[in-house]
Design brief:
The structure holds 2 protein chains of 2 kinds. By secondary structure, chain A is mainly α. Chain A is 76% helix and 1% strand. Classes of the chains: A mainly alpha, B mainly alpha.
Chain lengths: 283, 395
């Protein structure tokens, strides 16, 4: 009898967990399906290559796409070198002392800080104190700092996955530590590092809160002339046309299209990352 | 030569290694520099002062009292420790009704005299006037904003004149309500999926579920907000017959979905770390699979699971855009899930663009940033502390 009860209990519990998983997947497909269904008809060549017109009710989203690309490029130039070098230091040079533990805790905490705080900080430091104004450079620095913990963590994990025997072997052959890192460790860790970098690009392209006050422009049909210009950006554009248009009905299709473009970018980054991960694993 | 070169590079590495620490330090400096500046602002709007008759025994008022006077909620001086006398609030604009324009003087130089007349004529008057036209009258002592006004203030009306209200409570309550219910929804869902993924799912199911959850984490928050705005909000409004669909509930639901990937991934990792030997021992003693899960695997990984939940809460508290788009943004203390609310991050995002740099409002928003920063730091540290703990009697 007790065994029967045990069995039914197990059956009920397992069915419950399985259906919860299905619920989560269903939510994902609901969101994706909704945006794809409504946005697919909007996206065409003209939508991707022209500027918004008629008070955001017509035209395309080209300046926003270009702006997001600029920001991806700019923030990568900040976060990638800093993050990778930082990870090399913490995992290859520093031991396990207090300082390194402190740095690690700080890196963890940095990744938990909400993105709006980065926006505030970026505004106080880059826009006001350093007087960059609302500009690509201020936005890039802000977004770069935001993704820094992600880049550091993935690089550290990639480096830690390499067995110590390789390092010891290289050092035994007379290579200096720097040579070991440059010739042995980094090349081996490279595929995993790249995967992390791609994911961080996906993150940057969707962030809105940090660029609200550091770079994003409401409407700017021209492309920027220098790094001290403002740009439009996809996520901010979506926020603007979803909430504050004069004619919400007329801007809805454009909002669907913008949301779809954003999702496609994120999807592509995720796919690329998992493709690379699989490919390198086979090698 | 090569030696020197290596030394330089190593030094550069050390600098980079400490960069995150520096960033956090800089953040603390900038946030708190602007934020604490808030308490150096006076209660009354900059460039203005409050005047009363010379005989009035009241010397100072709190920020909330000033606001209530000008909203006609406090109507007698005896409520404020003064004489039994009706209060007559007076703003500069009202002078247009009393004196024709010719009598002000060419550069308004006669204005202070006229104002003095008005104040002397009207017992119980309290006049809100620009500093450059101040008449000879008793000027109320202009206190700095006090921590009490901020931390215990129950109203957030940064544009109110003469005394803007910067009360933290409605925003803090809004944040806590939305996050609390988000976690209440996300917790069973997330743990269920984590158990399924780590203990039950086959390899093929995992290969399908893991990327799906990664994708759920990858969807930008503004897209979640947009989805909430066009799907969830009308749906809630219709099905629950609410006056507005933009409520705390809509925010909680969206946040729950957004916190799910964090909870699922971390809790699953924690459960998978349970040593195989312990599981096998449990099965060997005659426990079935389910009993092993809830008597052995979950207790063993409880610290990791708790850390996952704490970090999920952190994610929910700090989330800005999605919440900003679906919660209706009414800065009042919420009484039910079906009220519109406004959270701390949403307030910063919505108002910073309009607040003039360096003003009281601007600094109040930075102070909100400090509060948010402290909350999330505490959450990170708590999570770290919990996940370090060894399970009781095991391990």
């Amino acid at each position: 009898m007790a065994i029967m009860q045990k069995k039914t209990e197990q059956k009920i519990a397992f069915t419950f967990f399985r259906s919860l998983s299905l619920v989560v997947v269903a939510i994902l497909f609901w969101i994706l399906g909704f945006i794809i269904y409504n946005g697919a008809g909007v996206i065409d060549w003209e939508f991707l290559t022209t500027a918004p017109s008629d008070g955001m009710t017509g035209g395309g989203i080209f300046p926003a796409i270009a702006g997001t690309l600029y920001l991806i490029l700019g923030s990568s130039m900040v976060a990638f070198p800093l993050g990778i070098l930082s990870a090399v230091y913490t995992s290859e040079y520093a031991g396990n002392g207090y300082i390194i533990r402190f740095i690690r805790i700080m890196t963890n905490n940095l990744s938990g800080i909400p993105s709006i705080i980065f926006g505030l900080f970026g505004m106080a430091l880059f826009v006001n104190t350093l007087e960059f104004g609302d500009s690509i450079i201020a936005g890039s620095f802000t977004l770069g700092l935001l993704t820094l913990p992600l880049v550091i963590r993935t690089t550290e994990e990639a480096l830690r996955a390499i067995p110590d025997t390789f390092r010891i072997g290289s050092l035994a052959l007379g290579a200096t530590q720097l040579q070991t890192i440059r010739r042995i460790t980094m090349p081996m860790a490279f595929p995993n590092i790249i995967t992390g970098l791609i994911l961080s690009i996906g993150r940057v392209s969707g962030e809105t809160a940090p660029i609200l006050f550091t770079v994003a422009a409401y409407f700017l049909p021209k492309l920027p002339q220098s790094i001290f210009d403002q740009v439009m950006a996809l996520p901010y554009h979506l926020y603007v046309i979803a909430t504050s248009g004069t004619d919400l009905e007329a801007t809805r299709p454009i909002a669907y299209g913008t949301a779809l473009v954003l999702i496609i970018i994120v999807l592509l980054m995720n796919l690329l990352a998992s493709f690379l991960r699989k490919k390198f694993r086979k090698l | 030569m090569k030696r020197i070169f290596e030394r330089i590079i190593e030094f550069a590495l050390i600098v980079c290694g400490t960069i995150t620490t520096l960033v956090i330090l800089l953040m603390v400096i900038f946030l708190f520099k602007e934020g604490t500046g808030f308490f150096r602002n006076s209660m009354v709007e900059k460039g203005y002062a409050l005047c009363v008759q010379e005989e009035n025994p009241v010397d100072e008022l709190t920020s909330a009292q000033i606001k209530q006077i000008f909203d006609y909620e406090i109507e007698n001086w005896n409520e404020l420790g003064g004489n039994n006398e009706a209060i007559t609030p007076f703003r500069l604009e009202e002078i247009f009704n009393r004196y024709p324009e010719e009598e002000w003087g060419e550069n308004y130089e006669l204005l202070p005299g006229k104002l003095e007349e008005i104040i002397n004529e009207t017992p119980g008057i309290i006049a809100f006037l620009p500093v450059q036209y101040l008449p000879k009258a008793k000027i109320l002592h202009d206190e700095h904003l006090l921590p009490d006004d901020f931390f215990a203030g129950s109203e957030w009306i940064p544009t109110a004149t003469p005394a803007p209200q910067f009360g933290l409570l409605p925003l803090l309550m809004g944040t806590l309500w939305v996050s609390f219910f988000a976690i209440l929804i996300a917790l069973p869902l997330g743990l269920g999926v984590a158990i399924y993924l780590s203990e039950l799912a086959g390899a093929r199911m995992r290969q399908f579920l893991k990327p799906a959850i990664e994708l759920l984490a990858g969807i930008p928050s503004v897209v979640y907000g947009f989805f909430g705005l066009v799907v969830l909000v009308p749906l809630l409004q219709k099905s629950l017959h609410l006056p507005v669909g933009e409520t705390a509930l809509a925010g909680s639901l969206i946040l729950a979905v957004m916190a799910l990937p964090t909870i699922i991934t971390l809790a699953e990792d924690a459960m998978r770390n349970t040593p195989q030997a312990i599981r096998e021992a449990s099965l060997g003693l005659g426990a079935n699979h389910w009993q092993t899960i809830y008597r052995v695997v979950i207790p063993y990984s409880i610290s990791g699971i708790s850390a996952a939940v704490v970090l999920g809460i952190g994610r929910a508290i700090g989330e800005t855009m999605a919440v900003l788009m679906v919660t209706g943004n009414a800065a009042v203390i919420p009484h039910s899930l079906f009220d519109p609310v406004r959270t701390i991050p949403a307030t910063i995002a919505a108002e910073l663009g309009e607040a003039p740099a360096g003003g009281a409002h601007y600094q109040a928003l930075f102070l909100l940033g400090c509060i948010l920063f402290i909350i999330t730091m505490l959450i990170s540290i708590t999570a770290e502390f919990i996940s370090k703990r060894q399970p009781n009697g095991l391990g």
